[in-house]
What we know:
The protein is α+β, with helices and mostly antiparallel strands. It has 2 domains: 44-240 and 396-485, Zn peptidases (Aminopeptidase), CATH 3.40.630; 250-388, Alpha-Beta Plaits (2-Layer Sandwich). 36% of the residues lie in helices and 22% in strands. It has helices spanning 2-26, 44-54, 70-83, 85-90, 157-172, 197-206, 265-278, 287-296, 302-309, 311-322, 326-332, 368-379, 404-416, 468-485, and strands spanning 92-96, 100-105, 115-120, 143-144, 147-149, 181-186, 211-223, 233-240, 242-251, 255-256, 335-343, 349-350, 353-362, 385-388, 421-427, 440-452, 465-467. Strands 1, 2, 3, 6, 7, 8, 15 and 16 form an 8-stranded mixed beta sheet that branches. The protein has a 4-stranded antiparallel beta sheet with strand order 11-13-9-14, covered by helices on one side. It has a 3-stranded antiparallel beta sheet with strand order 4-5-17. Strand 1 (92-96) and strand 2 (100-105) form a beta hairpin. Helix 1 (2-26) packs across helix 9 (302-309). The N and C termini lie far apart (62 Å).
Amino acid sequence: MIKRVLLVLLLALLVLAVMVAGNAYRTPSRQLQVPAIQKLAVDEKAVAERLAGAIPIRTVSSFDNAQQNGEEFRKLHAYLAQRFPRLHATLKKEVVGDNALFFTWTGSDPAAKPIALMAHQDVVPIAPGTEKAWEADPFSGQIKDGFVWGRGTWDNKGNLLAQMEAIEMLVAEGFQPRQTVYLVAGDDEEVSGLRGAKPIAELLKSRGVKLDWVLDEGLLVTEGVLAGLDKPAALIGTAEKGYGTFFLSLDTAPGHSSMPPPSTAIGSMSAALAKLEANPMPASISGVAADMFGAVAPEMRGINRILLSNLWLFGPLVRAQLEKGASTNAMLRTTTALTIVRAGNKDNVLPGRAEAAVNFRILPGDSLASVEAHIRKTIDNDAIAIKAYPGNAEPTPVASSSSPSYRTLQMTVQQAFPDAIVVPGLYIAASDSRHFVDVADNVFRFSPVRARSEDLPRFHGTNERISIANYVEMIRFYHQLLRNSAQPTS
């Protein structure tokens, strides 16, 4: 009897092993078979110098003061007009709000839905005290060692000028797009996009414009980031997490520290915050994460291919591993971040008020309402008041990774970066494109920037730079994307 049971178990394990191996190596690749293209001739020295010339213009944006550095933005506008004369002569230019730029390139087919390329002019400031850690002055635009250095080379003047370089070349070639092309360059993306991108989206809506697709900054061409993948992975953001900050406050009677009550404002608030941090919202491999792993699994090797091709069996194991990393954990759940705590002003006085801010990046499928309900249930303290930040935003809809517009984008990426695979992904930060979800059928978030793990701290950090070779690839990408988009979709 025991031998029979063991034999059945052995056969079951054998069948399971065959199923697992079959799933791993039978699943077809989702990569397209695309025609090779001839590399576009680009004057590397000239384009690098034009990008470098935009970096010393200090377009640092401010949330509170729209006019801060206004003159710098106007300097950038003049610089762009000087450096891209054909674009400015051909496209209709509008300045929206204070300094947001909005260009219209009229297409040949009035019935075709328009498209939009987005970037932003503003940059983040340099963290005080870190200036000496830069290998080149952060606002010099210095060219050395094959890179253009400085704040904005990556985020996001690189994208903006690469788009303009591509359009300038296309105009010189006599090219006219089939679809009307909008070029959107906000001036306050780093502080909300409420004065730039949002009014432009509202302007389009007021004009009755419905876009086929929007492409904004976003995920990257990652190299050596995904274990088990030998090729670079170009991640196209098909959705963006929501933004939810909630302010917690607790009022109690102040008193002398020599006679503390059993429960204090600081103690109660600390307990509430500890509960929130220890009990995050649930994680799952679903939605965009499942779509991403489904696309990347056939391209992987070894055990990672087996695991990702059989999430029905290994899902809990994979999820547990992903939860250990900050960036991978953020793909699976609505994250909880304790960002501000304020209480007390004297060492021998019990404060009567404790305040805190908790920031959530909301996974598509969750909502601001479900996050607030999670806070109330988790802290379980009716004495703590909860107030939502007025600038909170719901997660965006998920763009289809099987739509014609996604396929056009994927084809272009594979042509411009033939060594890379293309997979959908979740953008965990915030971009100006979230303001366009009501005026576009699909919104994608992708920057044609190559990055390794060691490059990621440069984003909003020290030693921001872009290689000249990669910048040329960016120009070729936008040039080919506009050419591919001119072809009727099937």
